[in-house]
Automatic annotation (TrEMBL):
Example GO molecular function: FAD binding
Annotated binding of FAD, by residue: 142, 181
SUPFAM superfamilies: Acyl-CoA dehydrogenase C-terminal domain-like (SSF47203), Acyl-CoA dehydrogenase NM domain-like (SSF56645)
Catalytically driven reaction(s): a 2,3-saturated acyl-CoA + O2 = a (2E)-enoyl-CoA + H2O2
Domain Acyl-CoA oxidase C-terminal: 493-680
Family, as annotated: Belongs to the acyl-CoA oxidase family.
Chain ranges of the Acyl-CoA oxidase/dehydrogenase middle domain: 138-232
Primary subcellular site in the record, as a coarse category: other
This protein's name: Acyl-coenzyme A oxidase
Domain of life of the organism encoding this protein: Eukaryota
Cofactor(s) essential for the protein: FAD
Record keywords, A-Z: FAD, Fatty acid metabolism, Flavoprotein, Lipid metabolism, Oxidoreductase, Peroxisome
Length: 687
């Protein structure tokens, strides 16, 4: 009978220390048992399909990977139709596949953009075809020469009144559409952002449905040059054929301009939209989805790292959590070292906070779209700014967190077989696409400057998440306000935590407003001079709402009047409160300069804050494995030799290494051509 490895014993022993019901915690994270069961069902659908097996991914070159990606895309579409799955189920399938496929922008951007910006007639024409995959689309905005600066896109759509057509043209070499997911090989159509030109007048960027390839033989239509831009950094997005396209006076019907809001009549009369930002809905969707996606990514990274660090033993250094009572000869578990805990456990807390933020942000998006459908734009500015700020912040911490999890795992962490290398390569580009994380922070900053103006003139109209601005209306009183913490336990009061974040946000917002006013106001200031201040206030606001929403989520879990899906057991709530406190206080500690430069914190408060963070970290140690188990990521999804649920890390890593193609031969390929001639260059050697 095979002997159970020490690795397995260590992970099993760690699970016995969990003080809460893991199933209950999982239900809290995913909004109820029904959602958990549906997620498991969908992931199992994918895991049973041979085409989605991940064992050989690291050996594929880009060309082979794209072909595999196309095959996976086809099967993904078939499964969606066979099982009549909804958009949420489709997103779960994508999560389970754990790679970016050529077809993803079809469901993630092409269909949503037509649904949100197309007229009823256009939706009726295009969406049924798209939903049955009779056409496959993508979203083409970025160009070789321009990405974030939408106003300077160089692709044009010129109205030809004689034939009632648009002439799509790449006016310069740099006007080529670039980085477009799905465009390189699979797509038959694209929704293209192009400058609308009528009688020589530029009406700005608008969206057009543009046929790219023939539905008969898939060849590009005359007037279109299309292809793949090549492999990406870190080997990421290897199955996605990010493409380019150049248009040479390519004609499409006038009706292919999406006309829910802007319109152009047969005689070339342009009707502007009732609000210039109505098209922002699709951007808000993509950014809102990213927040939830970062929760899933960071929770997977912390799951892998936590499990491995629990079974990894190094040195016999004493810690407060040594297990010498089990076996005095054993080395210390790496997870018991305080330095490791202080790096790892705050990221577990961040993961839980990201789950809460993802849920609220999606609720805000749904509320926005419900309002827009009836012409109500009241929440548009706030939701757009919020999604921008959170996209920037959440993708930043997820990418940094995944890399920190890898570094925590030491030398073995550099192996592809951890599952973290592929994950990191998937997260990193999110810092750039859907808005560069630094440029994007200007959206929230501009929004808050308008809110500052509102606070000064009509304070009762300040939006809920900007109410903290009212604190600073009396500038002299605000300048002399100080943190209310008098003893270490005060830091555990959620209301005190929120006061601290609100003070910081109010100060940074008014400082930015003062700087802009001193430079001549919004219209005259050199905006780039304030970029760093914009970044600071945007991330400060994002951190504030992250802390707020996590606190609210825990309060809802405790509230007996709340829907059952949002509630949790008393044992789970106790741990959730610790996580919420750790998330809030660690965020403050990480950004301590922001809270001290105006003397809001005293030196003694800083010291008690650090002590409280240290105590919270220690209080979570026994719960760490249970907390990551509650994320409910199956081994198929983790694809990690070191983070598998059974803890048998060394055996799994050994087994994975044996699959390396180099190991299929006793003498390596290249010996006769290169190694032998070098060894024999100076004659035979006898030793």
């Amino acid at each position: 009978m095979a002997q159970t490895s020490q690795n397995k014993k260590d992970l099993a022993q760690a699970r016995t220390k969990t003080s809460f019901d893991i199933t209950d915690m999982t239900n809290y994270l995913y909004g109820g048992a029904a959602n958990v069961e549906q997620r498991r069902y969908i992931i199992d659908l994918i895991a049973r399909e041979p085409i989605f097996n991940k064992d050989d991914w690291c050996w594929l070159n880009h060309t082979d990977a794209v072909k595999r990606g196309i095959a996976m895309s086809t099967r993904l579409a078939e499964i969606k139709m066979e099982h009549e799955l909804n958009d949420l189920d489709f997103a779960t399938m994508v999560e389970a596949i754990d790679d970016t496929l050529p077809i993803l922008l079809h469901n993630g951007a092409f269909i949503p953009v037509i649904n949100s910006q197309g007229s009823d007639e256009q939706i009726e024409k295009w969406i049924p075809l798209a939903e049955k995959y009779q056409i496959i689309g993508c979203y083409a905005q970025t160009e070789l020469g321009h990405g974030s600066n939408l106003s300077q896109l160089e692709t044009t759509a010129t109205f030809i009144q004689e034939t009632d057509e648009w002439e799509i043209n790449s006016t310069t070499f740099t006007a080529a559409k670039w980085w477009i997911g799905g465009l390189g090989a699979i797509c038959t159509h694209a929704v293209v952002q192009a400058k609308l030109i009528i009688a020589g007048k530029d009406y700005g960027a608008h969206v057009f449905v543009v046929p790219i390839r023939s539905l008969d033989d898939h060849k590009p239509f005359p007037g279109i040059q299309v292809g793949d831009i090549g492999p990406k950094a870190y080997g990421g997005f290897n199955k996605m054929e990010n493409g380019f396209a150049r248009f040479n006076q390519y004609r499409i019907p006038r009706e292919n301009m999406l006309m829910r809001f802007s319109k152009v009549s047969r005689d070339g009369v342009y009707t502007k939209p009732p609000h210039s930002k109505l098209s922002y809905g699709s951007m808000v969707l993509l950014r809102s989805v990213l927040i939830r996606q970062m929760a899933l990514y960071l929770s997977r990274a912390t799951t892998i790292s936590t499990r491995y660090l629990t079974v990894r033993r190094q040195f016999n250094n004493p810690t407060s959590r040594n297990d010498i009572d089990i076996n005095p000869a054993l080395e210390t578990q790496v997870i018991n070292y305080p330095m490791v805990q202080n790096r790892l456990f705050p990221m577990i807390a961040q993961s839980y906070a990201l789950f809460a933020a993802g849920s609220v942000m999606m609720e805000m998006y749904i509320g926005l779209m419900t309002g827009l459908s009836s012409g109500n734009i009241d929440t548009l500015a706030e939701v757009h700014a919020m999604s921008s700020a959170l996209k920037s912040y959440c993708t930043t911490i997820a990418a940094a967190g995944a890399e920190e999890c890898r570094k925590l795992m030491g030398g073995h962490g550099y192996s592809y077989f951890t599952g973290l290398a592929h994950m990191f390569a998937s997260i990193v580009p999110s810092n750039t696409y859907e808005g560069d994380n630094y440029v994007l922070t200007q959206q929230m900053a501009r929004y808050l400057l308008k809110e500052v103006k509102t606070a000064r003139t009509t304070p009762d109209k300040v939006t809920p998440y900007s109410k903290y601005l009212l604190l600073a209306l009396n500038r002299d009183s605000f300048a002399h306000s100080r943190c209310s913490v008098t003893k270490a336990e005060d830091w555990l009061n959620p209301d005190v935590q929120l006061e601290v974040f609100e003070h910081r946000c109010a100060r940074l917002a008014f400082e930015l407003s003062d700087a802009v006013d001193a430079a001549g106001g919004m219209e005259k200031t050199i905006w780039s001079d304030h970029n760093m201040e914009c970044f600071r206030i945007s991330h400060a606001h994002a951190q504030y709402v992250m802390v707020l929403w996590f606190i609210q989520s825990v309060r809802d879990a405790r509230n007996p009047e709340m829907d059952e899906e949002r509630r949790a057991s008393p044992e789970a709530i106790t741990i959730l409160e610790r996580l919420s406190n750790l998330h809030a206080l660690h965020t403050i500690q990480t950004n301590l300069a922001d809270f001290t430069e105006d003397a809001y914190f005293s030196p003694s408060q800083c010291q008690s804050l650090r002590a409280q963070v240290k105590a919270l970290v220690a209080s979570i140690a026994d719960q760490a494995v249970g907390l990551v188990d509650a994320f409910d990521h199956p081994d198929f999804l983790l694809a990690s030799a070191l983070g598998a649920s059974d803890g048998d890390a060394y055996q799994r890593l050994w087994d994975k290494a044996q699959t390396e193609p180099l190991n299929c031969r006793e003498v390596c390929d290249g010996y006769e051509e290169y190694i032998r001639p070098l060894l024999k260059k100076h004659g035979e050697l006898k030793l």
